Amino acid sequence: MEARNHNRQSSPATRPSRAPAMLAALALVAMVPSAFAAEKRVRMPEGDVVQLEAPRGAQQTLTGALGRPHPFATAEQRSAVAPLPWLDDAAMSKPAKGNAKPAPELRGPAGDASGGAAPPFAEYLARGDFAEAWRDLERMEAGTDAKALGDGTVSPQDGAHYGYVRYPGNLNTSQWLAAPWNKIGKLYFTTPSGGSSYCTANVASGNSVLITAAHCVYTRGQGFNSNFVFVPADRYGVAPYGKYGWQSATVLNNWINDGGRRWDVAVIRLAGEQSSGRPVTDYVGWLGRSWNQPYVQYTYSHGYASNISTQYTSICRGYTYSSSNEGSDVLVQGCDMTYGSSGGGWLRNYTPNSHSGNHVNAVVSGPHIGDFGQSYVGPRFSSSNIVPLCNAAGC
């Protein structure tokens, strides 16, 4: 099945009669023929995006497709899900049928949006709402849980490699309780072919919007993934801050039609928590965002990398840089994380145990050309990618 081409225009009759006031001056919404009736194209000044609304009834209750049991309902189901493999550069850049010429690089002023803290009683709230999950995590921390003992050791590969250092993320209590680590989690989903998989994702808006990689949200040539569930601070499938369905998923039109690392970013607006109905920001707050920053940044990239552990995050710290082989708006960073780290945030102004700083500046897309397992690349957040996505989704 060929990727749907969203370059064509819709007639005025297909446009909604009343657009939200915030987007009225910015966007023209046109319905796109699709298997999903709620899929639409949104025209933004910086570039078009394509947005899918969640099926009615599936947002908070985590109802599976066609009324089937949800594939990610239990901790056991979630802990067994395999990561999404990376796409190679040839597959990333294969154009859709009838594609137009590549979009030019937009240049704009550097910007950032601040992160935010959850309410002061957030941990108390989470311990009350998800008491069983907290008991499970505390048993793991005490070393009495067999699941933790089998995968709880630090990899002997930890240390300095080619200008970066890797170390565990939310392996211990100090990091699954605190910022910024508790704002990063696993995004589970079903691919159009019916397989279950996961990526890493980041709460990066006070309006409960996730940022992740586009290939975790939309499979090129097939369409949107489905059954999205986000679990912040996921540890062995346990959800200390709850489980979140989705309201909408948004990708760049250029991702659908062109592919390429610079377009490999997406946003998902979350629904309220499955049992309590509260927004994710009530429990964990949110990370900041930045865009149009210099290519050279000192960042901490995060991910649930399967070559290290699928059950907790790892972190690589080091400088990002540009590569002529990768093209514009693509960052490279040394790191040996592989599958599962897709969508993991690259944080600049890294500030442990704080709700300030911690700006998501890129997300993991895939391996650097010719350097699999030693460095990876991500879309440099810019006016061309994260800005239209956030404007459309309401970050």
UniProtKB/TrEMBL annotation:
GO terms for biological process: proteolysis. Residues 92-117 are annotated as: Disordered. PROSITE patterns: TRYPSIN_HIS. Residues 1-37 form the signal peptide. The keyword Signal applies. GO terms for molecular function: serine-type endopeptidase activity. Residues 108-117 have a biased composition (Low complexity). InterPro entries: Glutamyl_endopeptidase (IPR050966), Peptidase_S1_PA (IPR009003), Peptidase_S1_PA_chymotrypsin (IPR043504), TRYPSIN_HIS (IPR018114). Keywords: Signal. This is Peptidase. It comes from Marilutibacter spongiae.
